[in-house]
Design brief:
The structure is a homodimer of 317-residue chains. The first copy, chain A, is 41% helix and 25% strand. Chain A contains 10 helices and 10 strands. In chain A, helix 1 packs parallel to helix 5 and helix 3 packs antiparallel against helix 5. The interface between A and B is medium-sized, with 34 and 34 residues. Strand 10 of chain A pairs antiparallel with strand 10 of chain B, so a sheet runs across the interface.
Chain lengths: 317, 317
Amino acid sequence: MAHEHLDDVKHYLLDLQERLCAGLAEADGVAQFHEDSWTRAEGGGGRSRVMTNGGVFEKGGVNYSHVYGAQLPPSATAARPELAGRSFHAVGVSWVLHPKNPHVPTSHGNVRFFIAEKAGEEPVWWFGGGIDLTPFYPVVEDVVHWHQVAHAACQPFGDDVYPRYKAWCDEYFYLKHRDETRGVGGLFFDDLNDGDFADCFALQRAVGDSFLDAYIPIVERRKNDAWGERERDFQLYRRGRYVEFNLVWDRGTLFGLQSGGRTESILMSMPPMARWEYAFEPQPGSAEARLHDFLQPRDWLDEFAGKTAQDTSGELS
Amino acid sequence: MAHEHLDDVKHYLLDLQERLCAGLAEADGVAQFHEDSWTRAEGGGGRSRVMTNGGVFEKGGVNYSHVYGAQLPPSATAARPELAGRSFHAVGVSWVLHPKNPHVPTSHGNVRFFIAEKAGEEPVWWFGGGIDLTPFYPVVEDVVHWHQVAHAACQPFGDDVYPRYKAWCDEYFYLKHRDETRGVGGLFFDDLNDGDFADCFALQRAVGDSFLDAYIPIVERRKNDAWGERERDFQLYRRGRYVEFNLVWDRGTLFGLQSGGRTESILMSMPPMARWEYAFEPQPGSAEARLHDFLQPRDWLDEFAGKTAQDTSGELS
């Protein structure tokens, strides 16, 4: 039973990887993803796909992995001691896009599925995932579109799903040492196993399938916006914050690095280039200073969804 | 009594900060350090000095801080539960140099002193510190010089000091997820409180005072070496590893960021620019491939100290 579930999820994830790569390569228009398969001594492996120096994407990766072992790692059982000692399968797809044009946001997503098994007992399974957006020069219209697609993906599963996963995303992608979110959020969920398998799986698919609809229109709108050294400098500076989040706060990255995962696949999420500048502060009132107002949790749909692009072209209130 | 010790150490550290800045600015020849003082709501503050875009140093920082509080932070008492609940003073100087020329190594050092107090009991104090070197295009002669100065600084305190602190440095500055050291090591020590205060303080001063003698001759030798885009690319790539160490493994950085230290001073250690490249491998036999052999613990003095520069100009055996 559980392995039928696993097979179903794997089938979906491998297909999702194909569709994400096809959609992103089409949006890029120049570069292709290159595939790199790997195996893990303790069990399992992955299929990494990476694109560099594209027409739109300076670096992009869409990685599938399926790892398994005789014992769930401690980090997976810290909150669920009843699962300690169970064997496990973990399968997922993660993706990160680092565009070249500073007007195109960076974006990330992940969908994952776990099964923990023990002889003579029912298998325990759960889903996790999400999508999130990290603009450098944010446009309210884009952020609202992003959240509208996220909202629409969740709506069939109940009115409370989008608000919960939206809030969870704001909470998860938060740099405590900077007192700011990583970006403008999106969706994040974990430990999803209430209701039956089919419903949970359908929700995970809805989130995974929403990504291209959420992201590609923003890429198309911004990819030809003019930029120069100033915008590039600010993008590289802000990418430093992305590095800080991933290496200091992201539980998945830290667990992977500290427990012997495949380093190059885990750090596929790193930007191709980033910079740090001591005590940098954008000029008050500048385009760069605007970003700050976007990096706190806001209710994008309630605040802005009814407004026209013209209404929202200026500062946030 | 304890606060006389504290005053003595502070006096030394503030003077060390002056001397380091003066020596480094002289070696740079172009830029000066800019000072930035800050205070900490819970008690204390610091005096950060940062240089950017110098003749030699793309970025350099020499930071003094003195923080105190009513309770030692948990990370400081994890290994010493008997100190939990004590009030504390922590005072130190940290420095990091990121040269522009890829032939000049990055370098770092730190000296620190703690006092933990409790009414009616003797104060507990301890010293920590070290210096370490991170070359991109290492030269054996430079590494041997570096370790000779480190050895000479420790020698007056016993034959066992250099080997112990050298091994501790290799162990501390280690990227487990890359299976390599951060650089070619140097000295690292912590919890130093055996013997009397004067001896421990003298050892700390010997380590702090050794830095300019260890580093400046290497800077002078390499600062005019020719380099181009290839060497710059490799330097930026390797600086990515420096970021990975500092954000994933360095206990001081992580503790500071997670417990509300001054972020800009803590992250002064970040390189001004760094890059990541998926699955990068240097060409076998290239100058870049040589670095790998330097990033495992080696006994530099026993292996190489008797050899001439000519003997050691080729590959490591």
